[in-house]
Amino acid sequence: MASKEPDTDVLIEQARGGDGAARQQLLVRHRGRLRRMIAVRMDRRLAARVDPSDVVQEVLADAAQELSDYLRRRPLPFYPWLRQLAWDRLVELHRRHVRARKRSVTREEAGVLDLPDESAVELAARLLDTGSSPSEKLLREELRVRVRAALDQLAARDREVLVLRHLEQLSTREIAAVLGISEAAVKTRHVRALDRLQGLLRDELEDNQP
Hints:
By secondary structure, this protein is mainly α. The chain has two domains: 8-97, RNA polymerase sigma factor, region 2, helix turn helix motif (Rna Polymerase Sigma Factor, Chain: A, Orthogonal Bundle), CATH 1.10.1740; 117-207, Arc Repressor Mutant, subunit A. It is 70% helix and 0% strand. It has twelve helices and no strands. It has helices at 8-16, 20-29, 31-41, 44-47, 52-73, 78-97, 117-127, 136-139, 141-152, 156-167, 172-179, 183-207.
């Protein structure tokens, strides 16, 4: 039987004790999650200019430089901390390549990086149980607009909880750390937002039946 890899908390303790291999493993074990986060958040105009794989590598390089400070202070659980580095780099890339004339924002804030249409449609598909790939109906251009309108009717924090849970696939604990709210608040917002958005999306689809 293959041995089980140590979990993140064990690796953190080993890294704090000076274990170089544990430091390296910490940095690479969440590579897939970072790639997923970047794919969900990256504007297609930015993706045309910047290779997402390069962004992942840059984030991991940033994390390597800041890891010793993180291990001393541990301001967040590890993946939310790593994800924040990715968010900051995406915001900077977006400011440089897409919104060069607008103000720079460097902290997590709903609306700074607008959810790309493809990600909005994927979220709708997941919440309506159409499978992991958007249905042909949801991909119709007019319904992209309707999906966006339905999302805009949610409170910003509620919308973000859905994106973090269903697209980025974060745990309740991780979402709480990213948004700076309690785990109980995450659960309440998730149930409320899920019910409301599913209702709105079903209404929109029924209104567009041929």
